[in-house]
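Journal club side-thread
Mid-discussion, someone asked how the predicted structure for our own chain would compare to the paper's figures. Pasting it here so we can look after the session.
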Amino acid sequence: MEKTLENEVFELKNGGYKTSDVNNYVAPAELTVTITLNEYRELVSTAANTSAKVDEANKDKYKREDEIKKLNEKLNELKLENTDLKSQLYELQKIAIGKTDDCVSEDDETILD
């Protein structure tokens, strides 16, 4: 295959511009941009700040997820405790109703006598 300008550019674009130093070159007739050192420093600084903000946001996210997990566990524990207390209340109400029925039947018998 003949090495034409279009073929070289196609090979570069098809190969996906790698970030290693081996592929750090410009193909002929490829569009390039020149920036000043100050612009480059600002670009790097912005990228670093953005990365730091993303890291901080991720830490906050993981912290909140951990809190949510703990709160959900506590919620489940309280639901179980609530269910147990409702069962105990139901049993006590059954016992109380049974005692009330016994008292009423005894009183009814004395009134009838």
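Post-session note: Residues 26 and 99 are 96 Å apart (CA to CA).
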